[in-house]
């Protein structure tokens, strides 16, 4: 029996795609090819731990290098400030 201990709620495929700026289909392909540390399947759905890491490929064109590869990097990205009236 495998026991999974989760300290924070897992992220969905859509959340990881939004944070990294990569399509859901690409994140799915990376997860299926074991290119994302912290990705796991539960009841047929892909989930990601909050400290997931995307492994660079040998032919990575840089699209993952320019975007956040972890939740901490996503949170550190600059945010647009609301306009003053």
- Output mean pLDDT: 78
Biggest sheet descriptor:
3 strands, antiparallel
Q: Please write the string of helix (H) and strand (E) elements.
A: EHHEEH
**What is the global morphology?**
globular
The amount of helix comes to 25-40%
Separate helix tally: 3
Layout of SSEs?
Layout: E1 11-12, H1 13-20, H2 24-32, E2 36-42, E3 45-54, H3 71-76
Antiparallel strand pairs: 1-3, 2-3
What descriptive keywords fit this protein?
alpha+beta, 3 helices, 85 residues, 3 strands
Describe the 3D structure.
The chain is α+β, with helices and mostly antiparallel strands and about 80 residues long. The protein has a domain at about 10-55. Helices cover about 25% and strands about 20% of the residues. The chain has 3 helices and 3 strands, in the order E-H-H-E-E-H. It has helices spanning about 15-20, 25-30, 70-75; strands at about 10, 35-40, 45-55. The chain has a 3-stranded antiparallel beta sheet with strand order 1-3-2. A hairpin with a 2-residue loop joins strand 2 and strand 3. Helix 1 (about 15-20) crosses helix 2 (about 25-30). The longest helix is centred in the N-terminal third of the chain and has 9 residues, at about 25-30. The protein is globular and about 45 Å long. The protein starts with 10 loop residues before the first strand and ends in a 9-residue tail after the last helix.
